[in-house]
């Protein structure tokens, strides 16, 4: 089994598996945060429900952290091998019908930017200012207030949006590549998975984008 | 029939004396080229002029010039086998180009395919991948009757599409990681779809992937550049098949049995 994990094919399985963990997380994270468009109370109560159950929270956080670390380490190891495999560059790049899709060419740069975003994102929100609010005699964190404050800044909203574009491209390529990496691809599926991956990436992009835009444009403090 | 006018081209060609030498681009004029000439015929004419002038002709690999042997191939303006899809360079005709165009010709570039001279590189890494498992074992003796092993049409077609790979190396040359995944997977799939290939199925997947990695090819990042450049338009589904075969073989490969049960 060690040979499997060391091989180029095996490491792609790991990339796919760890990527899928985040594909699932990003979708639930986006969907649940849509609550911000509807009610501060629902938004805060949802956050409280997630963070108050430590028995579920810590294992979930460990899986996410583990998955992203393995994803990054695997990517670095594959990239080192890939650079070694192509030691000299061409004078010209493929063009026309033979040019590969652009998002697939810059997965490493996108991934690095997304990592920077995630770290910054955690500092801003998870470890950001802690406001309290009380609903039905239960004291909980008023994350809604913090989010509203942060999304008043045009600079932050711009940076957030740029990172979402990168995330969209990264997911669009990852979500279709995983079918091939896992060996779960047949001739008749080829068109379908492209549509599926792009639909997924677009839903994530538009869903997440609607939140800062709603706060910035409509729900001004 | 109205014939197109002959064209003139500028060729920027990679010239490299030998494997150790540092190469460079040299510019040549290709004058009065017939649009009906193949790309290699055009280069033949350029080479004839070089020979007359006492210069070294441009070295490039070629053999059948019918698009079936896999010998020819280099980059034209960054595209393996030139701009046209599903074509080898020997079957690419000069009518694809317009008068006055400048074309940059480079050899395949990959660590596993060292350049030997000019546009020719050493592709013996592919031979070693084949040697590691791209075969089936058969009993010698009289030829068997045709079709005495039944094969479903779906599988026969899939195997045939994979078998169309001519091993030219355009996939490796086009891949930003110089990955040989398309080549290796086509060879694995071709035999895995057929009953005759199933005896050595597990060992084949394990050995060929191991050899592919050992030769220093990169990993697949699913850009699809390989399939787009492939003169036989080998599909990416072969890579999925290879990964599936490799996973299954890694899990289910049986050890050779000894006598009796283990205590």
Q: Can you tell me the CATH class of the largest domain in chain B?
A: Mainly Alpha
- The total count of strands of chain A amounts to 2
Tell me the fraction of residues in β-strands of chain A, as a range: under 5%
The largest chain-to-chain contact, stated as pair and per-chain residue counts, equals: A-B, 47 and 54 residues
Kindly report the spatial arrangement of strands forming the biggest sheet of chain A.
Answer: 1-2
> Could you name the CATH topology of chain A?
3 helical TM bundles of succinate and fumarate reductases
Q: How far is the first residue's CA from the last residue's CA of chain A?
A: 57 Å
Full CATH superfamily name of the largest domain in chain B: Alpha-helical ferredoxin
Task: Outline the structure in words.
- The complex is a heterodimer of chains A (221) and B (263).
- With 221 residues, chain A is mainly alpha-helical.
- Chain A has a single domain (2-85, 102-218), classed as 3 helical TM bundles of succinate and fumarate reductases (Up-down Bundle), CATH 1.20.1300.
- Helices cover 73% and strands 4% of the residues of chain A.
- Chain A has eight helices and two strands, in the order H-H-H-H-H-E-E-H-H-H.
- Chain A has a two-stranded antiparallel sheet with strand order 1-2.
- Chain A is globular and about 60 Å long.
- The mean pLDDT of chain A is 95.
- With 263 residues, chain B is α+β, with helices and mostly antiparallel strands.
- Chain B folds into two domains: 7-116, Roll (Ubiquitin-like (UB roll)), CATH 3.10.20; 124-138 and 150-252, Fumarate Reductase Iron-sulfur Protein, Chain B, domain 2, CATH 1.10.1060.10.
- Helix content of chain B is 32%, strand content 13%.
- Chain B has eight helices and seven strands, in the order E-E-H-E-E-E-E-E-H-H-H-H-H-H-H.
- Chain B has a five-stranded mixed sheet.
- In chain B, strand 1 and strand 2 form a beta hairpin.
- In chain B, helix 3 runs antiparallel to helix 5, helix 5 (181-192) packs across helix 8 and helix 6 crosses helix 8.
- The longest helix of chain B is centred in the last third of the chain and has 16 residues, at 237-252.
- The N and C termini of chain B lie far apart (84 Å).
- At the A-B interface, helix 2, helix 4 and helix 7 of A face strand 4, helix 6, helix 7 and helix 8 of B.
């Amino acid at each position: 089994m060690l040979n499997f994990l060391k091989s180029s094919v095996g490491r792609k399985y790991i990339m796919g598996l760890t990527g899928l963990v985040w594909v699932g997380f990003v979708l639930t994270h986006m969907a649940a945060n849509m609550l911000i468009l509807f009610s501060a109370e629902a938004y805060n109560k949802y956050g409280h429900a997630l963070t108050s159950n430590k028995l579920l929270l810590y294992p979930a956080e460990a899986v996410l952290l583990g998955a992203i670390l393995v994803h990054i380490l695997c990517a670095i190891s594959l990239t080192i091998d890939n650079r070694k495999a192509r030691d000299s560059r061409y004078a010209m790049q493929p063009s026309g019908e033979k040019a590969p899709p652009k998002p697939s060419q810059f997965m490493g740069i996108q991934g690095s930017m997304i990592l920077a975003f995630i770290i910054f994102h955690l500092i801003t929100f998870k470890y950001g200012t802690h406001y309290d609010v009380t609903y039905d005699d239960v004291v909980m964190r008023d994350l809604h207030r913090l989010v509203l404050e942060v999304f008043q800044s045009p600079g932050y909203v711009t940076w957030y949006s740029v990172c979402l574009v990168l995330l969209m491209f990264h997911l669009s390529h990852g979500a279709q590549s995983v079918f091939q990496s896992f060996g779960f691809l047949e001739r008749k599926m080829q068109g379908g998975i492209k549509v599926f991956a792009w639909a997924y990436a677009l839903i994530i992009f538009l869903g997440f984008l609607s939140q800062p835009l709603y706060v910035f444009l409509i729900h001004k403090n | 029939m109205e014939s197109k006018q002959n064209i003139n081209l500028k060729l920027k060609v990679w010239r490299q004396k030998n494997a150790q030498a540092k190469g460079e681009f040299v510019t040549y004029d290709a004058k009065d080229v017939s649009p009906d000439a193949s790309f290699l015929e055009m280069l033949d004419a350029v080479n004839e002029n070089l020979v007359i002038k006492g210069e070294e002709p441009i070295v490039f690999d070629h053999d059948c010039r019918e698009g079936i042997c896999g010998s020819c191939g280099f980059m034209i303006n960054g595209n393996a086998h030139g701009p046209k899809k599903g074509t080898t360079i020997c079957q690419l005709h000069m009518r694809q180009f317009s008068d006055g165009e400048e074309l940059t010709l480079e050899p395949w570039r990959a660590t596993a395919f060292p350049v030997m001279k000019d546009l020719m590189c050493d592709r013996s890494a592919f031979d070693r991948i084949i040697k590691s498992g791209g075969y089936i074992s058969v009993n010698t003796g009289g030829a068997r009757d045709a079709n005495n092993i039944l094969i479903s049409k779906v599988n026969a077609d899939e195997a045939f599409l994979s078998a169309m790979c001519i091993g030219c190396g355009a996939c490796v040359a086009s891949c930003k990681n110089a990955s040989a995944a398309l080549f290796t997977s086509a060879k694995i799939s071709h035999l895995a779809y057929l009953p005759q290939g199933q005896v050595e199925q597990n060992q084949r997947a394990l050995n060929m992937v191991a050899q592919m990695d050992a030769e220093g090819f990169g990993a697949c990042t699913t850009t699809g550049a390989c399939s787009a450049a492939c003169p036989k338009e080998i599909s990416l589904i072969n890579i999925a098949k290879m990964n599936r075969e490799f996973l299954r073989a890694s899990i289910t490969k049986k050890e050779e049995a000894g006598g009796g049960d283990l205590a």
